[in-house]
């Protein structure tokens, strides 16, 4: 395992600047998630680190070594893609062993058998080792394809939305499993997703990408509690943060825009808001409000009922302020 | 507008039974969700209401009239499909007016009607554009416009948001619900997404293996599930199931989980043997004083809350607690169950045992 440094990397495809001057340090043993919507440059960044794309500018350092000019095979990385691709004619055991049998690694068979067994136990599939790959369920197949990467013990694992093709329940299970495996093995991992739940629950560090640029890099808690722009604040949190003109609430404010997470809108006194609808989601009730023509979502107090078109009063707590361009004002 | 009563409807395709005798009522003006996993019969049920399939037996009453065997054209129901099909060679206005023109409505009236619908959907400025260059959201709005313009008695929607990406889906879900609130038209909506069903629906029917598992408001279904399937399918993370064995007498207010005496809502019926103690993750709290001990296996930060995976004497379970509360992987903690929310299930049949908590809900469905 190793520390990986991205030093001012850039990549353009024709006129589109896909990645622009990204610098970040991925510490040894960190689980770094790159988060952003489609087109933000996440996958391109990952491909630049892997060597599947060639850098226009900047350097990639793995364990202190500049690998920018090396091929993917020379870089000592392992990748997992969104779509699991197993060899259908091979058993689970042979699928897992395949990377170790590569002519570059020349691993002895006894060591291969031992490593495959250990990874199968970590992934909780030792009883499936002799099954054909095609006899597995979707979740098991994705576990095997993650296992095929893990068996190699490379400097860094690169994963591109490995869970997004799975159903919700399985995704939730594998989230925990992946996090557990990563912390048990002490692996360094760079993981791309647009799913904020994956970013928040698994990452030690989250890098938020916007139009090819890294706009914030920190722990999930830092990003959630201390975002440096409206864009970053909107990436984490469900329901999403409410961004409103500050003067709706009267008094003095630090900036023209106020950002309020649903849990930071207090009921009692303050500005008048009209109830549009209450959504009962079981573990929480979301209240849709109209505040002087702006729609606002907040969380309702336990066990209270709200009639549509009734009026309640709300006041902000722990507000975040932003300037007119969306940059945070401290 | 319409009230739709489904009475003992059944559908067979050869030897395969897609829907077994199912009954429920959709009240006038309701936003009604048919929810379940793939293959549960929800789309077949919707297609029977629309007339795209004829039921093998049973009745479908639309405002008191049995329409089960009528062709779709005589039902006055509009259908919105998952992949919104628009006429690519026509502009937006022509796409929306087409159903009216084909009914032979006079031009002036068509024009007024299209203007009204465009206003409701907020698409007046794109009426003369070709549909080819429209964004996904606008295409969806046009498809809705074409369904609304006929003033049908009811709308049928088959996963209309299924093909959209997550962020946009959330936005369209809100827009659809707001549209429904303005128009008040009875809407039947098929989805496999439990959160979508909870968010948008006035009522939900949960289906599984061709049968209706439960029918009620989102809150009723969440708080008082009738079966283990419903308890597991609704909610994320889903309800925790703690298996235990014992004897529960009518009137019991506690059960024995290993050495721990857990308080439960007063039971109306007794049961003997293998049972399940069902408790939602947000109804489990950490408490140093509790003698029910568990080991923390994992924590997942979610902003305001965190989800903790625990190894308890009755198996693995999940708790949702405030992120402000510090928890470390590997530590031993005590657990408190919010006793008034607990549901007991018969392990073999998977059905909920009646108690003070759920008797009101389970009595009617």
Radius of gyration of chain A: 24 Å
For the biggest β-sheet of chain B, the strand order reads 6-7-8-3-9-10
Q: How many strands, what sense, and barrel or not for the largest sheet of chain B?
A: 6 strands, mixed
Please trace the helix and strand order of chain A, writing H or E for each element. EEEHEEEHHHEHEHEEHHEEEEEEEE
Unreliable stretches of chain B (pLDDT < 50, length at least 5) are none
* Biggest sheet statistics of chain A: 6 strands, mixed
State the helix count of chain B: 9
- Beta-strand percentage range of chain A: 25-35%
Oligomeric form: heterodimer
Count interface residues per chain for the largest interface.
A-B, 32 and 34 residues
Helix content estimate of chain A:
10-25%
- Global structural class of chain B: alpha+beta
State the secondary-structure class of chain A: alpha+beta
Give the beta-strand count of chain B: 20
Overall 3D geometry of chain A?
globular
Shape of chain B: elongated
How many distinct helices of chain A? 8
Descriptive terms for the model:
heterodimer; A: 330 residues; alpha+beta; 6-stranded mixed sheet; 18 strands; 24% helix; B: 365 residues; 5-stranded antiparallel sheet
